[in-house]
User: Fold this.
Amino acid sequence: RERSLAVALAGDRTEWMGQTSRLLGLAMLVCVLFAAWFAHIAYSDRRNARRLAEAEAERSDRLDLAVRARTAELTDAYERLQQETIDRAAAEENLRQMHKMDAVGQLTGGIAHDFNNMLAVVVGGLELAKRNIRLKPQEASRHLDNAMEGANRASALTRRLLAFARSEPLLPSAVDPDALVSGMADLIDRTIGDQITVALAPKAQGWRIFVDQHQMENAILNLCVNARDAMDGRGRLTIGTSQTALAAGEVGDCQAGDYVVLNVTDDGCGMSAEVLARVFEPFFTTKPVGKGTGLGLSQIFGFVRQCEGEIRIESEPGKGTSVHIYLPRRMGDAAADASEAISSPHDATLHPPTRILVVEDDPRVLKQTMAALAELGHLPIACDHPSKAAKLLSNNSDIGLIMSDVLMPDLTGPEMIRALPQQYRHLPVLFVTGYAGDATASADFAGHEVLRKPYTLMSLANALSVALSGSNQNGTVAAAE
Assistant:
C-alpha cells in the first residue's frame, strides 16, 4: 500500500511538473506575443512619427517658400510705391514750379507792361519838353507835367507792389474802426455812385486796431470800388465791423486773441472758385483793359498781413461777395481826431540854410539829392560810403543834419548812425529809402524822420523841416507822399 502510494505520488509530481512546464511555455509565448505586439506598435508609432515629421518639414518648407514669395511681392510693391511716391513728389514739385513761374511771369509781365507805359509818358514828355523849351516854353511845361504824372503813377505802382510784399513802410496808430468807417461814408457815396445803397453796421463797440489809417482807408475804398464794379453800378453794399475771439490758427496764421472784423459785402455777380483762388495774385484781374491793374486785392492782402491780420473772401457766382478782414485788437485809446495821426506840413522857410551831410552810395541819386538840397537853400556835403561819415563829421563841425539812405553796402543807415561817436548822436537824422521793409515797425529808426523815394521838392522840404524842428521825436516814422 505504501508502494502504491509512492508510485501515485511520483505520478502526480510528474503530471504537476508537466503542467507547470506547459504553463511556463504558455507564459513565455504570451510574453513573446506581447513583445512582438509592442514592437509592432513601436514600429508603427515611429513610422507615423516619421511621416508626421516629414509632413511637418514639407509644410514648413511650403510655408517658408510662401513667406519668401510674399516677402518678395511686398518688397517689390514697397519699391514700386516708393518710386511712385518719388515720382508723385517730383510731379507735384514740377507743378508747383510751373505755377510759380506762371505767377512770376504774370507779375514781371504786368510790371513791365505798366512801367513801359509810364516810362513812355515820362520819356516822351521829357523829349518833347526838351525840343520846345526855348521856342514854346508853355508847351514844354505841359509836357513836363505829363512826364511828372507818369513818374507819380510809377511811384504809386511801386508802393502797391511793396504793399503786396508787405514791405511798404507803415504809420501805425490806434484807430477806432467804427469811427473810421463812419467817417468815410461821404467819400464812399461819392465814389460808388447814387444807384448803390450803402449800409453801415459799425459794431466794434470801442475796440481799437493798430493800423496805418491812410492804408486802411485805401483798403476799404478799394473794396468798395470792386463791389461797385461787381454790381455794375446798382445794388446794395454793406460795410460793417464786429468783435470776435479767435483760437490760434482758427483763421490762417492768426494768433489766439481778440480781433476786430471788417466786413464788406455786396450783392453783385460773385466769383467762381477758379477766380476766387487767384484773386490775390498781383496783376490778376477780370476787369476790362484800363479798368483795373490787378493790384488792388494783392495790395490789401499784403497790408493786412503786415498788420498781423488775415483776409478771407466768400463768393459764389450770382450770390455776391463777402470780404472779411481780421485785425488784432489794440488795447488803448484811439486818437480822438483822425487828423491828429497825420503830420501837419512844415514850412521849410522856418529854418535857415543848414549844412547837411548826405550819405548815399548811388552816385546818380547822390548828385540829384545834392542839387535838390541846394535848390532849397541848404549846404549839402557829399558822402558816398557810410564808413566815411564819421570823418566828414569831424572835419565839418557845423553840420546840422544827417540825411542818409537806408540800404547801403557794408552798413545800413541805422547801423551807421548807431556806430557814430557819441558826440554826434544829438544830430537830427533824415532817412531816405525806397524799401524799408518791416524795419519801420522796429526800433531801427529810433524815432527819426523817414522819407520815401521817390519824393518831390515839396515833400523833401517838409521832411527836412520836421527833422530839424525835432517834431518827430515820439518815434513815429513819417513818410512824405
Remarks:
- The CA atoms of residues 401 and 426 lie 10 Å apart.
- The mean pLDDT is 79.
- The chain has eleven helices and twelve strands.
- The domain at 172-340 is CATH 3.30.565.10 (Heat Shock Protein 90).
